[in-house]
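hi! just following up on the protien thing from before. the input was this:
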Amino acid sequence: MTPDSSSPHGADYLPGPIARVDRLLVPIENAANFVAAFFIFLLMVLGVAQIVLRSVFDYPLLGYIDMVELSMAGMAFLGAAYTQRMGAHIRMELIVGSLRGRALWLAEILGTLVGLVIVGILIKFSWDHFLRAYQIGDTTIDAELPIWPSKLVVPLAFGFWFLRLALQLAGQISLFIDPTRRPEGVIVARDAAETARDAAHEMLDRESGKSASGRKEP
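and the predicted 3d structure came back as:
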């Protein structure tokens, strides 16, 4: 996650190669996350249509179960890279949260390397599954919809995730070499006290806004 220009070094800051690659990846990840959200919205629309058609007209939507199954890949995986960029994946920070400096970035490097290996393996096997489904013309059982487009989504989504992890690894290595550098392409962890303090300030600001809007003019 690239810090904004409001940091102390913002005035003289020139984006490095990591920040430039980060800016290239961001719109791709945003688009993939939008597609995942669209799949969720489409599934809601299909669900409503299925209920109305079955209940009112006694005519269920053909292939509804198949379409739900095929949309699951997009909903589950297309937002992974976006979530990684935002630091929203579940992380165990009991130990990492207490580290500072090179020790922190070394721990982040090790964790990212493990993630790269796992995601790389998933890319390989999910691509093999896509090729097999494409070559044999695999379809769903009920409506006989082609399965390979749904299976292609999985290695593509994991590919975006792999690129995000690789970029974060480059940023972490850079900070391990020189912890005083401006963070680029990495997740800047915040401790529980900072999160709670920001949440409290947000709540107070919201309450004060409500009080000001509800106050009558004399």
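Residues 17-203 form one domain.
The chain has one domain: 17-203.
cheers
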